[in-house]
Predict the structure.
Amino acid sequence: MKLHLFGKPIYHFRALNCMQRIDDTIIDTNLIKSGKNFLGILNDIKRRPEDAANELQISLEEINAIIEGKKSINSEIVDKAIKIWPVNARDFYVIQDDCPLGVKIMRAEESKKTSRIMNRAGKPYYEYRDTAMSTVAPFRPEWILELCYVDNNEPTNSEVQWNNGHFMHQFTYFIGEVNFYYRDSKGEKNVSVMNTGDSMYIAPFTPHTFTSRKGAKENGLILALTYGGKLTGDVQQELSGLSVELGSNFALDFSSKENASASLIKYHREISNLSMDELSKRTTISLNELNNFENGIKLPSFSDLENIAKSLTINVRDLLPNDKIEDKVIVKHHEEGKKWFYPESIKNYEFCELASTTALPFSKAFEIKVMNSENHNFDLESGVHQYVYNVGNTPIKISWKSDGKNYDEIINSDDSLYLKPFVKHSFAGNGKLLVLRIGGKISGDSQRELSIVGKKNASRAISETMQWFDPKGKN
């Protein structure tokens, strides 16, 4: 099926595969990705194509066709592979890229078609709608209209219907008069009275709910952006494979800075099988001091941490607890948000900082006032995933670059979009946008590991291009 995007033809294959047209040849880029992924698996388990063909009992020609991206790997081959190799079925399947141009837009009209009413206690409680989502993005943003009205701001109001909390982190932007209810760390019910521009963050599994306030001109509305942190996907699968009993041991005591420091030191000492006596010998720190460190009685100095890290062959950062222990619920009213212009010399945008947490350093939320209707510069770029929603009443133009080509589109009120990391872009017009930035799985430790691998080898780390050795030899 041929579709048109910004007046240019693209190719769509069952809504999942990414097709490119080069010199009148249609290329399935996901097949190519799948082939490189398969080659990477063979390299990891030290199988040549001929070894794989022999063990899977298929022809060498078929193996090479899969590696070259000319043929898909079918379920029969995968079933054979997982029986004879130490791999999982999900290792063979690559993420389908539904955002080949770097930006994916969802119009307000499309969003409205996804409307569904959620009942609680036999009454309509929420209207849900989808907004822009992508297969390559870590967030699941929702448009939620509060259908339940309350006539007071008591957290124990019997009209309020609570949920059980969920696994995803959640950032919420408020529009209109909305009451936000949540249980704190002690399990007690609380309510925050929210208005347009206010925001909040809640940690996973925090019970919460929302209502409209009686007397409001219209139903309250929230943009609830839920997203997975580092625990979803492969990490969650690994924990699940270990069992709940074993996997739960990875959850250290981070209830205070002292306990977090103690837990980290003990964990790294024990995975090295060092006794306290041996660590004391290596560090020249007394047994009494080390016991104080591991029991959370005393925080080690930075020089102590350097000494311990050197003895354990790790980095100091591996022993550092978070700077502070934050609440699992963070509420920020609009007037509390810091504001600044960017770029400072031109003032194309005014940023307003929304709710955030130090526990998620790569997650940032802003309300951006677009102030230049003639902006032709690609003056924005962020190394994280971005979600954008037009919360204003006027259209905004987005311009961006992808694979050396320039694109632009009009984002109307209540339209939303997703931008891939490092896509150069800009906004023009006079209006207001909500922007949420999420690091996903790559930022943090994964980024550090890729940086150690180095840019020279990054392409092979991302998508394998060659067998791990040359059969013809290499001197």
User: Anything to note?
Assistant: Confidence is low (pLDDT under 50) at residues 1-17, 21-26. The CA atoms of residues 43 and 467 lie 6 Å apart. Residues 29-44 form the longest helix (16 residues). The chain is about 25% helix and 30% strand.
